[in-house]
Design a protein that fits this description.
- This protein has about 250 residues and is of the alpha/beta class.
- Helix content is about 25%, strand content about 30%.
- It is built from six helices and 16 strands.
- It has a seven-stranded mixed beta sheet with strand order 1-2-3-4-7-8-9.
- The longest helix is centred in the first third of the chain and has 23 residues.
- The chain is globular, with a radius of gyration of 19 Å.
- The termini are far apart.
């Protein structure tokens, strides 16, 4: 009887864990690399996303709490690499970074982000490197261009990141408006498969600016993020003839 009860308890615990994981991971996009490998991208909250490829875990701008919402990173496990676009509170949380770190976790940020954390490797626009033989990162600019908005994200401070994961190219823009460098992304990094673009006026893009950037970058899939209270209902229609598929996630407000 004791063995049966123990077995029943173990099954119940496993079921509970499975249910919790499904609930927490419901906003996960799955893409396939050209070689047929799976890449999972968890849409966590606002500017926070996570990439998992073959057990290698990358966190971008992990933040544990946003506007009273607690983000449970438990199902994602510890990170192998953490990237921070810039030092603003909704992108950099020292506590969350510490909770996701393990021995050997690589931490990358812009210079101001590293200064705020007191650790990490500072990356500047134009830098690049390998995380594994099949995962490359490249650092691209992220800044405001509209007159009067430059103070939010000045040129030369923040980073966007382009990840090539076994041939799948993922652009995580950080806090930016459309910038001239975007027109050269495909020639430098190859065609963009997935683009995360911020649509949070007045700090990042307006909806028309997002349309402009998407048409220039021409990703296969556009996932707007960091969009707060911005109404995105018209965005799919505005890009319906562009060949860009728009996928909306409520979790990325």
């Amino acid at each position: 009887m004791r063995q049966l009860l123990t077995l029943a308890a173990a099954i119940a615990a496993l079921a509970a864990c499975t249910t919790n994981k499904t609930e927490e991971m419901k906003d996960t996009e799955i893409f396939m690399t050209p070689g047929g490998a799976k890449v999972e991208i968890a849409c966590i909250c606002h500017g926070s996303i996570a990439i998992n490829y073959n057990g290698y875990s990358i966190q971008i701008d992990p933040v544990g709490e946003m506007d009273g919402k607690i983000n449970d990173y438990g199902p994602l496990g510890k990170a192998d690499a953490i990237f921070v676009t810039h030092e603003h509170y909704d992108h950099l949380s020292a506590e969350t970074i510490d909770s996701l770190s393990k021995a050997g976790t690589l931490i990358f940020a812009n210079a101001s982000g590293c200064a705020k954390l007191g650790k990490g490797t500072a990356l500047a626009n134009g830098d690049s490197g390998l995380l594994t033989p099949k995962i490359r990162y490249s650092v691209v600019p992220a800044y405001n261009t509209t007159e009067g908005r430059e103070r939010f994200h000045p040129k030369g401070n923040g980073n966007g990141y382009i990840f090539n994961v076994d041939g799948l190219t993922i652009y995580v823009a950080g806090d930016t408006e459309p910038i001239p460098k975007m027109s050269g992304f495909s020639s430098i990094y190859g065609s963009i498969d997935v683009a995360f673009l911020p649509v949070n006026q007045p700090y990042t893009m307006t909806v028309p600016q997002c349309v402009e950037a998407a048409k220039v970058i021409a990703p296969k899939v556009l996932i707007p993020y960091h969009y707060s209270k911005t109404d995105l209902s018209e965005l799919p229609g505005l890009l319906s003839e562009s060949g860009v598929e728009v996928r909306l996630h409520e979790s990325l407000r």
